[in-house]
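Quick start: what a row looks like.
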Amino acid sequence: MRRAVNILTIGVCFGLATPSHAQFSPKDAIAAQLRAQGYKCDAPKSATRDARASRPDEPVWILSCENARYRVRLVPDKAAIVKRL
């Protein structure tokens, strides 16, 4: 069973651990979520929100990594739903 890590938890933890002027980008946060769930994402390049596939409280992102592309649905308090493209 893959361990689920809430994306908001990741953002909050990094937000508290870094200076206030530092930014934690969506591509880095989503890549961290994928890695926590056992997916490989080497050098995240971009994260683009898919507004058409998104739902209220369940955003969908297209994440491009050096080695793969993923469609990621972020579900609150659950593991992300991931599909390799």
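That is the whole record. The chain has a mean pLDDT of 82. The beta strands are 46-49, 60-64, 69-73, 81-84.
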